[in-house]
Design goal:
Layout (H helix, E strand, L loop, with lengths): L7 H14 L1 E2 L8 E2 L12 E4 L6 E4 L6 E4 L3 E6 L4 E6 L4 E8 L6 H12 L8 E10 L2 E10 L2 E9 L3 E10 L3 H13 L32 E4 L6 E6 L2 E7 L2 E6 L9 E7 L7 H19 L1 E15 L2 E14 L2 E11 L6 E9 L3 H14 L1 E2 L5
Antiparallel strand pairs: 1-2, 3-6, 4-5, 6-7, 7-8, 8-12, 9-10, 10-11, 11-12, 13-14, 14-22, 15-16, 16-17, 17-21, 18-19, 19-20, 20-21
């Protein structure tokens, strides 16, 4: 699938927003403050480094000696004496990389707290915090946090090395964040700190050169679901369970007692009573999905909606994708759904990935792999 790309006006707007709330390591070895910068056409000391068309560019920081791979079609700029790095993509996102001396006396959680004190809340750039989790980045302890504000979503990753603290911020429009974030995850998977940054007990192999713009698939062995009458086949993690809650629905989730138990990928076949064409079936199925969620869940919110095209060989189907959030039984959930017509008849497929909002990104690679394996089988309908 190829997404429409945002032109430079969007990138410039995001850059101005980024420069307003960018975290600066100033004076001391901590995340000291945010400073507002005035956008300029040619900032003093900025070195623009456009990536070669069709090729990945490897960047090595002149001071901290970390290595990053610049996505195709993106531009890299260095700014300031400490050489803070910004990567701007024509697709409409920005990645900002800041680095400063590590301060072990200040926890990663405390760094997040200091950041939020200035920039999260009423009248501030970020209006809400979506999730926070501990993680690893290239062998370093890290924390990942998601924020929304002003139509823009920011994913902040703060990681600590032996000598350096890293703050990496990814900015993208809310309506295209889910798609563009895949490139950010790929970027993080190819980020390599100076080997001296990795604690001796945590040494990890250096990242291999990038060969694809797609993040790696989960390594869990898979099983295949291909039941007669469902009109499709799909692969799912071998340590997950499959159930058929109704004659027209198949659901896949982790085993009870595991973190993936609340994660569900489901495919529902819907035949709206009044639909006369495949397109009408898909439109009515999407309307029904929204209506059902708004009735049965609390605080239902549509985060984004746009066209989506399924392609597999000679088969191409035009549908819609939608991302929503809602609350149910005291838990906040996020659902990513694709609604597609069958090639013939009046049946529509609703493919969806649902997870607690706080773990949505953690299990997203499994959903991506399942979606990629989903094979719609023409005939019937």
């Amino acid at each position: 699938m190829r997404c429409k790309t945002a032109a430079y006006p969007m990138a410039r707007a995001l850059l101005r927003f980024l420069l307003f709330i960018v975290a600066v390591f100033g004076g001391g070895p901590v995340l000291a403050q945010f400073k507002q910068a005035q956008p300029q056409n040619n900032p003093s000391g900025a070195l623009e480094k456009p990536a070669s068309p069709g090729k990945f560019k490897t960047y090595v920081h002149p001071i901290r000696k970390f290595t990053a791979v610049v996505p195709v079609g993106a531009e890299l700029a260095e700014r300031g004496d400490s050489v803070q790095v910004s990567i701007r993509s024509r697709r409409g996102y920005i990645i900002n990389i800041q680095s400063g001396d590590a301060n072990p006396t200040l926890s990663l959680a405390h760094m997040i707290t200091k950041l939020e004190a200035k920039y999260l809340g009423p009248g501030k750039p970020w209006s809400q915090k979506l999730s926070e989790k501990r993680s690893k980045m290239a062998g370093l302890d890290a924390v990942e946090v998601l924020y929304d504000g002003g139509g823009t979503r920011a994913e902040v990753v703060i990681a600590r090395g032996v000598k350096t603290d890293f703050v990496i911020i990814f900015f993208a429009p809310v309506d295209s964040f889910e798609i563009l974030e895949r490139e950010f995850k790929w970027f993080l998977s190819n980020f390599a700190p100076n080997p001296a940054e990795i604690p001796v007990a945590k040494k990890a192999p250096a990242a291999s050169p990038a060969t694809s713009s797609v993040p790696p698939k989960p390594s869990v062995p898979t099983k295949r679901f291909d039941q007669a009458g469902y009109g499709y086949a799909i692969q799912y993690p071998g340590n997950w369970d499959v159930s058929r809650p109704s004659d027209n629905t198949a659901s896949f989730s982790g085993k009870k007692g595991t973190p993936a138990y609340q994660v569900v990928v489901s495919i529902q076949n819907v035949r709206p009573a009044t639909a006369k064409t495949p397109g009408e079936a898909a439109d009515q199925a999407l309307t029904g999905l929204k209506g059902s969620l708004s009735r049965e869940a609390n605080d239902f919110k549509i985060v984004g909606e746009k066209p989506w095209t399924y392609r597999n060989g000679n088969l191409s189907l035009s549908g819609r994708q939608i991302v929503v959030t809602y609350s149910y039984s005291g838990e906040r959930y996020r659902k990513w759904a694709m609604v597609l017509p069958r090639p013939e008849g009046t049946v529509a497929h609703i493919w969806s990935y649902t997870a607690p909002d706080s773990r949505f990104m953690e299990f997203r690679p499994f959903a991506d792999a399942m979606l990629k394996s989903w094979t719609i089988q023409p005939g019937g309908g």
